[in-house]
Amino acid sequence: MVHLEEHHRLESLTELALWRYRTYLKEPGWVGEWMARLLARHGDDKDQPAQSLVPQYVLSAYELRTHSWSSAGLDTALQLLATPSVLVNRQNPADVVPLGPGVEEAKFRDGWAHPEAVTFDGGVSRGVVGWSGVAYHPQPDERALTMSQIVALELDVQALWALSSHILHTIEDGRDPVMPTAYGWRFLRSAYFRLTTARPTETAQHRVMREAILATSELPDRLRAAQDALRDSNP
Q1: What dihedral angle (degrees, nearest 10) is formed by the CA atoms of 21, 26, 32, 35?
Q2: What is the DSSP code string of the chain?
Q3: CA 123, CA 232: separation in Å to the nearest integer?
Q4: Are residues 11 and 64 in contact, defined by beta-carbon separation less than 8 angstroms?
Q5: How far apart are CA 214 and CA 48, in angstroms?
Q6: Predicted confidence (pLDDT) per residue in 91-142, tens digit
Q7: Within a 10 A sphere around the Cβ of 4, how many other Cβ atoms?
């Protein structure tokens, strides 16, 4: 895992959406180069030349330090942060551009909400989960979720998504999936129950966020399918 931190001053959520999608084009290559160098330097066989790597996924996390949204516009802002694709034209992935003039302003004026996004609050603060992301606004006078808690859950979800996708794609290619014993179907079964079962010390906010992320990502179904595939191939 590689962590890249950048600081930007943006004037609109459309600018943030553009920056997000454009980083998806350049950051995987940058991360792949650094991963290859680190593995060549610290791996078991340091005499081997560095091999090219292409990361499967880039997790972007944004912490907005200041904003000007009132209570009326905050809900729309959270919706747009969680589903930024509605602000840009991605027909050409190599050249993502704004969807059009006045689109963002119109959504704030009309109070827009994505039909497939799931909202959560747990009694305090507010959050929105969509297919493209999670947006969360903590109330300063409440015990809110921390950035590290949100990122930790997302890392678990995305890592298991990548693993299950690898297994299912292997099957789609007509091959039997082969995994190390430690990460076979029993590992996926354990991961499934860890993700879908509440813990005694879990807060209400963390529970509703976890449930919303799992519902929008469809990860539980993928984990079960990958688990069954591994069990059939490696009983």
Answers
A1: -90
A2: ----------SSHHHHHHHHHHHHHHHHHHHHHHHHHHHHHHSS-TTSPPPP---S--------------HHHHHHHHHHHH-GGGGEE-SSTTS-EES-TTHHHHHHHHT---TT-EEE-TTSSEEEE-SS-EEEE--TTS-PPPHHHHHHHHHHHHHHHHHHHHHHHHHHTT------GGGSHHHHHHHHHHHHS--TT--HHHHHHHHHHHHHHTHHHHHHHHHHHHHHH--
A3: 43
A4: no
A5: 41
A6: 898 889 999 889 999 999 999 999 989 998 766 678 899 887 889 888 766 6
A7: 11
Structure tokens at 136: 């969360």
With vertex at residue 112, the alpha carbon angle to CA 107 and CA 113, rounded to the nearest 5 degrees, is: 145
Burial class (CB in 10 A: 0-12, 13-18, 19+), 221: exposed
Residue 33 to residue 38: CA distance in whole angstroms? 9
Return d(Cα 205, Cα 121) in angstroms, integer.
6
Residue for token pair 């509605």: 86
Contact 104, 80 (CB under 8 A): yes
Of 65, 72, 76, 189, nearest to 138 by C-alpha is 65
> What Å distances lie between residue 77 and 35, 125, 131, 159, 232, CA to CA?
35, 14, 16, 28, 46
Nearest one of 130, 24, 28 to 79, comparing CA atoms: 130
Per-residue pLDDT tens digits for 168-195: 999 999 998 888 889 899 999 999 999 9
Which region, left, alpha or beta, applies to residue 41 given φ > 0 means left and ψ of -120 to 50 means alpha? alpha
